[in-house]
Amino acid sequence: MAGRGPAPKENAVRRNVVDLSHLEGDEDVPDRLKKLFKRDGYSVATQRWWDTWVESDQAESFKTTDWQRLQMLAPLVEAYYRRPGHNALAEIRQNESLLGATVTDRMRLRMNRKDQDKQGPERPDSLPENVADFELYRSLGGA
Question: How many CA atoms lie within 13 A of 76 on its CB side?
């Protein structure tokens, strides 16, 4: 009578596992794409914007197309810094959102690579001493 609902199936398969394979940076991105094209022609603010993206955690998983997107966005960022306007800012925000600029964007894209690395394997080899082994409990005649 303890607990809610029926007991889980022994061979239950979790179907909503999050696939983070898209975060693996296995593609070799040319260094020229990671450098701001014609950097001297941009203001210090735009250069800082670029450097922030290059040093961000999500940049580790960027592919060639992501870096090209940032290269295309740089002139728009420069234009916004020279003459701020809501239309340019909306376009910048939309593009940055697709690259995971804010916490909400990264949550939506399921970008939690650091947390995944800290978790280790899904199932540990042994349980800590202060944790009950429910499989052993069931095999001994428990719920």
Answer: 16
> What's the pTM value of the predicted model, to 2 decimals?
0.63
Tokens 């701020």 label which residue? 84
**Separation of first and last alpha carbons in the chain:** 9
Tens digits of residue pLDDT in 10-46: 877 767 766 666 556 556 888 888 999 999 999 999 9
CA dist 3 and 58 (Å) reads 41
DSSP assignment of 22-89 equals: GG---S---GGGGS-TTGGGS-HHHHHHHHHHHTSGGGGG--HHHHHHHHHHHHHHHHHHHS--HHHH
